[in-house]
Structures are given as C-alpha cells and as structure tokens.
Amino acid sequence: MAKIVGGITTSHVPAIGRAIAGNLQQDPYWKPFFDGFPPVHDWLAKVKPDIAVVVYNDHGLNFFLDKMPTFAVGAAPEYQNADEGWGIPTLPPYAGNQALSWHVINELVEKEFDLTTCQEMLVDHAFSLPLKLLWPNEERCPVQTVPVCINTVQYPLPSAKRCFKLGKALGEAIASWDADLRVVVIGTGGLSHQLDGKRAGFVNKDFDLAFMESLIHDPEWATKYSTEELVELTGTQGVELLMWLATRAALPGKVRKVHTNYHIPISNTAAGLMVMECAD
Q1: Which terminal residue of the chain, N or C, has fewer Cβ atoms less than 10 Å from its own Cβ?
Q2: Catalytic residue among 193, 217, 259, 263
Q3: Tens-digit pLDDT profile for residues 19-30
Q4: Which of 2.60.40.2250, 1.10.8.50, 3.40.830.10, 3.40.50.2000 would CATH assign to domain 3-278?
Q5: pTM listed for this prediction
Q6: 12 is a catalytic site residue
C-alpha cells in the first residue's frame, strides 16, 4: 500500500515567484522567508516522496466565477501552468499520476463527496510556487503530482468541518492505494491576509500561531469556527487556511512537528510554513 510520509503547508503569494526569478533570496525583505526552507529540503531528501498530492485553491486560471466547483481533483497525465498576469515565469509541466488520481476520485465519490473531475487542468501559482520552493534546484518538479482544488474564492465556501472531512477521506484513499510508493501531502495558502476593502493589510499573528500549533495537538480546533468567523479572524483571503486543515486531516494519526517558520510581511500576507511527519 502507499505510504503517507507527512505533510507540508506553505504560503503561495505570487510575489514569491518574482523573488525567485530575480534571485532575491538574500534580499533583506525576503531572506527571513527563504531561510525557512533548507530544513524542509533536508526532510524531503530524507523521506524521498514519489508523489505530491497538492491541496490548493485556484485563482481564476482553471476555474472562474461562472464555474467554480467546491472540490476538484485532477486526473490528467500532466498539468500545465500559464501566464496569470503576475509577471512570474511560466514553469515546465508537472507530471501527473492518473492511477492515484482515479483511485482518489473513486474513493471520495464513494464517501459522498461530489467532485469535479479534471482530465485537463491548468494549475496556477498556488500549485506551482510551493513546488518550486520545495525543490528549488530542479528544472522540473521531480515528483509526480495530484492536484486537489478547494474553492476559497466564490461563495458559498465549504466549511472548515467539511474540508477536514475531505482531508480525512483523502488520506484514507491514498493509504488504501495498492502501490508501493511514498506520498507527501502539500497544502498551500495564507495564512492571515486581506488584500482589499477597509481591512486591507489585516494580519492576525496570534490566531495564525494558535492555528499552526493546533495542527499538531488538536487538529480539529479550527472546525469550531464558521466560514464567516474565519474571515473575521484571518481576513477575506486568510480563509485559505482550509487547505492547511485538509492537509493535516489527510495525515493518519498523530504527527511530529519537524519544522515551522512564520514571517510577516510578504505582500501584506502572513507567510507560514510547517512540516509534519507521520508517526510510524
């Protein structure tokens, strides 16, 4: 059976892509952010995943406001990204693993999750930038991928409780896949930030740190909040923490905190990073 080795959660701000392209990793503004990643690279070199299941949200590249599924899973042989207008480089395609994709889709539908199944799928910066941060020296992403997209853009949004249930079912599906391969689950987004309106620039460090700690010791903690409460606590875009929550739920049993980093600001965003290793 497939083995889930752990989970990684990280921010996906488009400005990260411009910083990478401009070799700004040692710039004083960016250094505290990029300095958080070498321990993650060391961990990945140790656990050697074959596949990354990436839980993220699309920002209008593959889905737009006229057609916005609550949950979508990619089932393509490869995934292209494209110019989103942020001025970040377009990266080479990402290899898919259709066998795992279809296994996940079948298992989730069996557990009454209504999915959009994508046999062609563009992936945006929420997918591409985290993978580049995790494998920065590789021209192409060295692992196969399965995209799992959660709507955090167009109301109505799935609740934290529903996303936790999705993550749990996702983890059970991966673990039941009859393949001797190692899988890392990656959740991208946030943490607290609001990019528009009267609260533009809002960051809630206390809540962010409490949420990050809860993923280790009390992973269902955030499910007590409604979507509206999460927006109040974290900002309109901070609700992207739903991807972190689903990622933690996908990890079986207890986890060990390998590494964390938290930095403010990156483009008015609280940038978080965590590595959680599955207990043997």
Answers
A1: C
A2: 193
A3: 999 999 999 999
A4: 3.40.830.10
A5: 0.96
A6: no
